[in-house]
Design brief:
It is elongated and about 70 Å long. The chain has a five-stranded mixed β-sheet, with helices on both faces. It has a four-stranded antiparallel β-sheet with strand order 1-2-3-4, with no helix packed on it. The protein starts with 10 loop residues before the first helix and ends with a helix. It has 295 residues and is of the alpha+beta class. 37% of the residues lie in helices and 19% in strands. The model has no long low-confidence stretch (mean pLDDT 86). It has a domain of 110 residues: 2-Layer Sandwich (Nucleotidyltransferase, domain 5), CATH 3.30.420. The longest helix is centred in the C-terminal third of the chain and has 18 residues. The protein contains nine helices and eleven strands. The relative contact order is 0.14.
Length: 295
C-alpha cells in the first residue's frame, strides 16, 4: 500500500482551513451529504442552505432540515467543533500519540472531556479499517505490552497484553490484540489476514509451525541465537521480522513516554491508532479527512 507523500499539514494550514465552527460544520455537511443531493423528504435533487439558529441546513425545494452532526459523536457535544477538529489534527500530525493531558492543555477543556474526546477519536480511527488480505512477503511477530509483577520479567510476565502484527513488504501493517500465542489462536489470525501462498517470515515460536500446512511458504529467524536476518535456500528469500519489531519499538516507547500506561481494556484502540498512523503517515491531509469522514 505505497502512497505518495503529501505536503506537511501545518498548524497554519489547519486554522486557514477551519477558522471557526462554521467551517467545520460545513465540512461535515460536504463529507456526509454534499451541498446538493436528493432530499430525503421531497426527493428533489436540491441545494441546501445554512440555517442561522441551529446546526442545520434546509432543502431549497421543501425546507426539510438536515443536521450534519446527527447520529455522530458530535451530535450532542458542547465542545466547539473546531476543538474536535483540532484534536483530530493533533492525532494525525504526531508520531507518538496524544495523551489526555496534552489534549486538556491544547484545547482548554477538563481532563474528563479530553480523555473522552481522545477515546472517541480512537474509535473513529479503528472503525473503518478494512484492508484486502495481506500477500506477497509478510512478516509476523507478537509482542507483550504492559503489566509486570515484581520478581518476574520477560514475555510471560503477568498482566501483560499480547499483541500480534503482520507487515506486508511494501504494504500495510495489520495488528490485533490476542488472548494467547497458542497455535489455534495464531492460525485464526493468519487465515483471516494473510492470503495463502504468501511467503511468511516469523521467529522460531513453535506455534507458527502451522503455516506450512495451511499453504504458506514459511521461513524463520532464530532470535535465541542472535540471528535477525537469514537467507533460506529452500524459499530463496531473506527472512526477518525487523519491520514489525520496529513498529513494536515505536508503540512501546510511545506508551511509556506519552501515555505512561494503557489498560488492556483499551489496548485495541491505542493499537488501532498507531497502526492507522503507520499506514497513512505520508498522507497527513488525507489521514485527517479520512478520520473526519468517519464521524
Amino acid at each position: 500500500m505505497r502512497k505518495s507523500k503529501s505536503p506537511a499539514f501545518s498548524v497554519r494550514d489547519f486554522f486557514a482551513r477551519f477558522p471557526d465552527d462554521e467551517a467545520c460544520l460545513q465540512h461535515i455537511m460536504d463529507v456526509r451529504f454534499g451541498m446538493r443531493h436528493a432530499c430525503r423528504e421531497c426527493g428533489v435533487e436540491a441545494t441546501f442552505h445554512r440555517m442561522t439558529d441551529r446546526r442545520a441546513f434546509a432543502c431549497a425545494a421543501c425546507g426539510d432540515h438536515v443536521y450534519p452532526t446527527a447520529g455522530t459523536v458530535l451530535e450532542d457535544t458542547r465542545t466547539p467543533l473546531q476543538s474536535w477538529f483540532y484534536a483530530i489534527y493533533l492525532f494525525v500530525t504526531t508520531r507518538h500519540g496524544v495523551s489526555g493531558k496534552e489534549l486538556q492543555r491544547q484545547l482548554g477543556v477538563t481532563y474528563k472531556t479530553a480523555w473522552r474526546m481522545g477515546m472517541k477519536i480512537r474509535e473513529l480511527i479503528g472503525s473503518g479499517e478494512d484492508f484486502d488480505m495481506l500477500q506477497g512477503h509478510v512478516e509476523m511477530d507478537e509482542a507483550y505490552v504492559g503489566g509486570k509483577r515484581p520478581g518476574k520479567r520477560g514475555r510471560g510476565a503477568e498482566g501483560k497484553t499480547i499483541i500480534m502484527g503482520m507487515k506486508q513488504h511494501g504494504g500495510p501493517i495489520r495488528t490485533v490484540v490476542i488472548p494467547n500465542v497458542k497455535k489455534p489462536t495464531l492460525r485464526g489470525v493468519v487465515l483471516k489476514n494473510v492470503k495463502p501462498g504468501s511467503v511468511v517470515s516469523t521467529d522460531e515460536l513453535m506455534s507458527y509451525g502451522l503455516l506450512t500446512d495451511d499453504g504458506y511458504v514459511h521461513g524463520t529467524v532464530t532470535h535465541s541465537e542472535k540471528v535477525w536476518r537469514a537467507y533460506d535456500l529452500r524459499t530463496k528469500q531473506f527472512h526477518s521480522t525487523n519491520s514489525v519489531e520496529t513498529f513494536w519499538g515505536l508503540f512501546k516507547r510511545s506508551i511509556c513516554s506519552t501515555h505512561i500506561s494503557v489498560s488492556s481494556k483499551y489496548m485495541d484502540r491505542y493499537l488501532a491508532e498507531f497502526t492507522f498512523r503507520s499506514n497513512y503517515r505520508v498522507m497527513q491531509n488525507a489521514m485527517f479527512d479520512l478520520i473526519v469522514s468517519r464521524v
